[in-house]
């Protein structure tokens, strides 16, 4: 048993060996097979680079196809064997560490480009040969009398021995003579083609200019022309050719004959059609793929006035579960069944279904009235998914979420339409799935803005676009300022100042909340040091304290305690100057591992506040096991106290919470205090501190300086 190649160069040489063995028998070359292999090795390396490149270089693949012709691989069988080798072995030997599905798709496009390059080079070579033949014919017709016999002999040799079809007709189009190659192309034995005229050889696929060029030539206005033309054979089959027609003149320059040179391109055309189909259709389902769909969508969006389009973007709900539980083979069978059902839904003119990849499908409808048609199409798709799919003896329920986009042609690009459909589809999925939603430009704008903020977050932290505002914490008993809560803001270059509700959830989702939270903690602690140095103990108020919010992601980060200790030591601030606020919802059902960092911080002297208390439906008995020293009562309990008299039920609830907190040696802070009446009632109920617009809106640290200075001086 031979050893498998152990490196990229070895695998590349193995591919070149397989390629040379397949193609060498049908190549007209004087080289030995090893020499021929050495010639193919650089071409194999170029194919490998195209396969693995970041962007697909069709020109490089076409150049490899053209190089085959330069290497005398002009037999159509050489191209067929080459494409078979590329299809079977290129990804295997040169596609290491890549996505197999993507590599197969790129391999199909590469083959298409190689075939195009091969065809172009062979065509150029054929044209050169045709030109040589035409020149020989002209020379044979125009030589002087004493060389006529030799010239006719040379022309006869070229005429009879040429590999391409040659025919001569008079200016009226009557066929006078054809060579053997042309008769073989048409499958006939009569050299005169039964007395047919050239003008009888029309075909429905003739290009519009074909016969106009012919008329110009027989009138002597054109010396030659070249077109791709189809002919019907006597048995009804179609012959495709590269046709060059030249005008032959006598010694006086008078038009006398027309000379037709034909190259049979039927097999090449069929091969190109096959490669085109493979490049534009999904290998698993047979549906049009992403590239083909974008071609159709772009055509629909560029239609004339009065035309509209409708698009349904479908994503199967829970498809990953099928792959994970039953395997990818079962998932593939499910996709094939879904594709068949979708194909049956889009049978009207102007409708098509495509697979974009994975479990994502799109259905497109076009016409003047797609508002109604796209709704009906989405309904048909939902109905088609109702019946379970049988896979490996299991009945699988199929559910799908659809985003529907409809509108006039000419207003949006394909990328914008698909983005809107994708956003709408996810909106349907987040609403529970198994439904379709219509696109909403305002919802699209919100999602796009959210995405833009998400991608801008890392750079914003590096550029220093975040800043902190501080809202005072006031003692309800004597009105003194006891500290402030740090509230981070984002000064966005386009959107202005953004509150934490706009970007903190995004930071938590991306993980940026950890470095952002560390920055907020350090800046806030530094500010606390400035306050303490400026105001000392603050008179009766005691030392000013800074409250900093912790997100659930920060709670689970292993560096929370170490970061906090380092910041306190680096700034020279004692732990009693810091209070970390944790939302009640983040601690519901918290185990000892989650509480351990908070306990360590509390043991150091850092206060822990339970924020938004009363919104998390936590068991009040759990307060005894939590390492908290402050309860921050949610504003929903105290809103009714903005008016006098307050709701007696709310008063009883707040009174009970305050009594419970004090019995557990917990201080009570109230958020959202906006009126003097509210502050007075909370003082009477025994609340310790409060914050809200009644005292001050969040602002720069200098504002707290002023409030603290007034308090310290009386």
Give a quick summary of the entry.
This protein is an alpha/beta fold.
What kind of sheet is the major sheet? 8 strands, mixed, barrel
Radius of gyration: 40 Å
Q: How widely separated are the two ends? A: 96 Å
Annotation field: number of helices: 24
Described by the principal axes of the CA atoms, the overall outline is elongated
Quote the average pLDDT: 84
Number of strands: 21
Structural class, from helix and strand content? alpha/beta
> What proportion strand?
15-25%
Strand line-up of the largest beta sheet:
13-14-16-17-18-19-20-21
Multimeric state: single chain
InterPro entries: Biofilm_reg_signaling, EAL_dom, EAL_sf, GGDEF_dom, Nucleotide_cyclase, PAC, PAS, PAS-assoc_C
Protein name: Cyclic Di-GMP phosphodiesterase RmdA
Pfam family, one: EAL
Write the layout of secondary structure elements.
Layout: H1 8-23, H2 33-52, H3 58-70, H4 76-94, H5 100-142, H6 148-161, E1 165-170, E2 175-178, H7 180-186, H8 210-218, E3 224-232, E4 238-249, E5 255-264, H9 266-280, H10 290-301, E6 308-316, H11 319-326, H12 328-345, E7 351-357, E8 360-367, H13 370-384, E9 389-391, E10 394-396, E11 400-408, H14 414-430, E12 435-438, H15 441-463, E13 466-475, E14 481-492, E15 496-498, H16 500-510, H17 513-535, E16 545-550, H18 552-555, H19 560-571, E17 578-583, H20 584-587, H21 592-604, E18 607-613, E19 630-633, H22 648-663, E20 667-670, H23 676-684, E21 689-690, H24 701-713
Parallel strand pairs: 11-12, 14-16, 16-17, 17-18, 18-19, 19-20, 20-21
Antiparallel strand pairs: 1-2, 1-5, 3-4, 4-5, 6-8, 6-11, 7-8, 9-10, 13-14, 13-21, 14-15
